[in-house]
Amino acid sequence: MSTDHYDVLIIGAGLSGIGMACRLAMACPEKRVGILERRHAIGGTWDLFRYPGVRSDSDMFTFGYGFRPWNELKVLADGPSIREYVVATARDYGIEAKIRFGLSTTHASWSSVDARWTVTAVDEQGDEQVFTAGFLVGCTGYYAYDRGYIPAFPDLDRYKGRFVHPQVWPDDLDWEAKRVLVIGSGATAITLVPALAQKAEHVTMLQRSPGYVFSVPSRDALSAALLHVLPAGVVYAMARRRNIALQRLLYRAAMRWPRRMRALLLAGVRRRLDGAATLDDFSPTYDPWTQRLCVVPDNDLFDVLREGKASVWTDTVAGFTETGVRLSSGATIDADVVISATGFQVQVLGGMTLDVDGIARDPGRLLTYKGVLLDGVPNAAVLFGYINASWTLKVDLAAQYVCRLLQRMDERMAVVAVPRAPSGQALDTCILDALTSGYVMRGEAALPRQGRDAPWRVTHRYEDDRRVLLDEPVDDAWMEMF
Fold first, then answer.
1. Which of 133, 115, 29, 138 is nearest to 414 (CA)?
2. TM segments (predicted)?
3. What's the rounded Cα separation, in Å, for the pair 112 and 109?
């Protein structure tokens, strides 16, 4: 068993972890930074997900890092391109050498006597390694990497075909000229359907309930035109600012005028379907942005529906048969391959447990402070992205705040920083309470809690977070430093 000490220890080498490490390299170059990563590659989600057509569901100008802009005209990038972007960023900022691969963190323990964290990790052989750190940053996202969510489908064991979950895509899966059933209607499902339809005999998307779907161009034509007259750096910076503004405008409009936004979204779907499917199959019962909107590039989902390569059913699975599924309506769908695009399992800190001076601290019972720190937990941050905009926008703001906090601690010669919530502040709602998605409902108990007022309430508003995290003083009435 070995022990290594770091000024800052980051858990996770995905999009968030690499971004955090790069911000530290720029703002706090004197800090000794380490990263623990359970996989054997950089990229997190974008190294894990290998299903056909995997891509971002946010535009890359805002999904990319603010300090290293996405410099391509592709709006919704494919998974391999995003993975290479993250790897290249790590390489450019000298982060690769800081990563310890193949280590799953299991527990972190804070000692007030020593003013440091002791982190236990396990390698693939089951051997423990121990690390210590002055400051801990969790960059593990909010889902379990080792397993996706599969509902308890009745009689699944009867099915004789191939059953897979996209989170663990098998290399040997062959769907050419076969009947494929995709269960689900979220971002993964609407990405899979057009990709699989290029080779399959037919693809059926079976959804329990519809979601909002809208199409965007796959290539930024405006930026392409501007590149003829302006420097590339200026053009891509303009695209980022423009798209941030558009995201915020759409979300605010949806919150203020939900009926008008619903009518606008459904009118777009109606035009693109052109009779290929009923509008009922794309008409959710909920208001826009109470669940994430699904984005498709260049109408690809609607194209395969119109061409007859794919179809949509709105129904629920009553049970499996040897050749497919039996629906609650009494109908059946036969399929050679069934793909359960049914979401993920919510998990905080990659499943790692915490204690402070021997007392267990469950993140699902703690208030979040400025959406970055946890009430009563010293020298620790947990980075979460936005639910109503690109994930990276919030993560990058949070990373910059962590750097500001570390700098302020150094200025005050403090070794400990801990936020303390006043009594009566806590609410029994999680940080994703604005969403009614299935994964939030299933896993909300694991997510940090909301407070009644700022800075204990997550606003999901980029303009407010910029002010709070980048401009307001680090010192306030709730932050103890000593």
1. 115
2. none
3. 10
> In this model, does residue 441 exceed pLDDT 80?
no
Tell me whether strands 104-111 and 179-183 are parallel, antiparallel or unpaired.
unpaired
Q: Quickly tell me which residue has 């558009």 as its tokens.
A: 246
Q: What is the pLDDT of residue 2?
A: 53
**C-alpha 134, offset from chain centre:** 27
Cis peptide bond N-terminal to 455, omega within 30: yes
Q: 338-354 burial, b if ≥16 CB within 10 A, otherwise e?
A: bbbbbbbbbbbbbbbeb
Strand partners, 137: 10, 381
Can you say whether the dihedral through the CA atoms of 43, 44, 49, 53 is positive or negative?
A: negative
Where in the chain are the domains?
A: 3-145+345-481, 150-342
Q: How far apart are CA 241 and CA 243, in angstroms?
A: 6
pLDDT of residue 437: 74
* pLDDT band of 146, cuts 50, 70, 90: confident
Non-local (6+) Cβ contacts of 475 within 8 A are 408, 481
DSSP 235: H
Measured distance CA(21)–CA(91) in Å, rounded: 11
Asked whether the predicted pLDDT for residue 436 surpasses 80, the reply is no
Helices (H), ranges, 218-341: 221-226, 232-256, 258-273, 300-306
How many CA atoms, within 13 angstroms, populate the side-chain half-sphere of residue 101? 10
Running DSSP on this structure, what letter comes out for residue 152? -
Q: Which residues lie across from 10 on neighbouring strands? A: 35, 137
Tokens describing residue 451 = 């407070």
Residue type, 22: C
Examine domains 3-145+345-481 and 150-342 and report if their fold is the same.
yes
pLDDT at residue 429 greater than cutoff 80: yes
Task: Retrieve residue 353's tokens.
Answer: 């447990």
Contact in structure between 284 and 208 (CB atoms under 8 Å): no
CA nearest to 56, candidates 80, 40, 21, 72: 80
Burial-class residue 414 by CB neighbours within 10 Å (0-12, 13-18, 19+).
Answer: middle
- Parallel/antiparallel/unpaired status of strands 179-183 and 337-340: parallel
- Burial class for 287, CB neighbours closer than 10 Å (0-12, 13-18, 19+): middle
CATH of 150-342, one of 3.40.50.150, 3.30.420.40, 1.10.1740.10, 3.50.50.60: 3.50.50.60
Q: Which residue from 74, 40, 69, 38 is spatially nearest to 55, judged by alpha carbons?
A: 74
pLDDT 10s digits, 94-133 = 999 999 999 999 999 999 999 999 999 999 999 999 999 9
Q: At the topology level of CATH, where does 3-145+345-481 sit? A: FAD/NAD(P)-binding domain (3.50.50)
Contact 450, 458 (CB under 8 A): yes
Average pLDDT, the chain: 94
